[in-house]
Amino acid sequence: MRPARTQEDAITTEHRDGTAESAGAWLPSLIGELLGLDGRRLPVDRPLGELGIDSLTAAQLSVEVEERTDVTIPLERFLGEETLQDLVRELEREAREAGARGAGA
User: Fold this and answer.
1) Least confident of 3-7, 13-17, 20-24, 48-52
2) Span 50-100, pLDDT tens digits
3) Whose CA is closest to 49, among 17, 18, 19, 83?
4) Other C-beta atoms within 10 Å of 14: how many?
5) Alpha-carbon dihedral of residues 46, 21, 17, 91, nearest 10 degrees?
6) Cα torsion through 74, 80, 86, 92, rounded to 10
């Protein structure tokens, strides 16, 4: 059983429209929508390449993630061995680093 996430772990991603949402909430939802699946039921520890993501879907995901977060995730990463959990962690790390850069300015 996974330990519960703390408030500190719940890093949000700020979108260009000014809203903020956890990457752990919107990324599975987006992937599920594009694959015609329930994003809440996607396995977080299974390689994304095994979920049925093709190159067109990977390109859509890459563009959507960049539009929402200003973080570039190459489409190849959606086709390989990385998991949903890996990508959420990276987006959360990027959000923390962007926040630190903004605080230091």
Assistant:
1) 3-7
2) 999 999 999 999 999 999 888 888 989 999 999 999 999 998 888 788 777
3) 83
4) 15
5) -50
6) 10
Q: Are 33 and 39 in contact (CB under 8 A)?
A: yes
In 1-105, the DSSP E strands lie at 12-14, 20-22
Residue pair 48/84 in contact by the 8 Å Cβ criterion? yes
Half-sphere exposure of 83 (CA within 13 A, CB side): 9
Which two structure tokens, joined as six digits, stand for 94?
């990027």
| CA–CA gap between residue 42 and residue 83 (Å, rounded) | 10
